[in-house]
Structure formats: C-alpha cells, structure tokens
Amino acid sequence: KFIVVLILYIDNLSIINSNTSSIVKLKKQLNIFYEITHLNLMTNFLGIEVL
To answer: Which of 11, 29, 32, 51 is most buried by its number of CB atoms within 10 A?
Structure first.
C-alpha cells in the first residue's frame, strides 16, 4: 500500500507520493473532473524549501 498526500492551497494542488505510477493514475482521475496542469517539481511551499 502507498500513502498519497494531497495538499490544497488556494488554487494549487500538490500530490506527494514515492510511487510515480500512483501519482500518474491519480492525475488521470482528477483530469476527468477538473482541468489540471502539471507545472513542475515542487521546490518550495509557503516559503519552505522542499528537497
């Protein structure tokens, strides 16, 4: 089993998981109901650097 963490802040949604295939699957499911855009890998969140 994998844990998927969704962080929603204003109009941004961040998906965190160590399994990339589950992220791709979740993004496909979300894209059915919402228009989503993959911007890039997260480098910082609310002023905190993400490694």
So the answer is: 29
